[in-house]
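Example 3.2
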Amino acid sequence: MKTLLLAAAFAALALSPASAAKMSCTSANMAKLVVGLGGEDTPGKIAARKSMASANSDISKGNMRGACTHYMSAEKAMAMK
């Protein structure tokens, strides 16, 4: 029984860093994400590029809330394997 509980605890810890890795919606963090979009195209990177294009569009319109929403979507897409 203890072994099962210990295995469940390790599994929960293994999954938690993915959610803890989210960064705040700042221009510096957006720039870091854009730098990471280079290189080989993967489905996650393609989706992230589309989300960042939408974020840039929202920024130019002054809609920072929408831009942050798209940034978070891009961040999730980059986390996809």
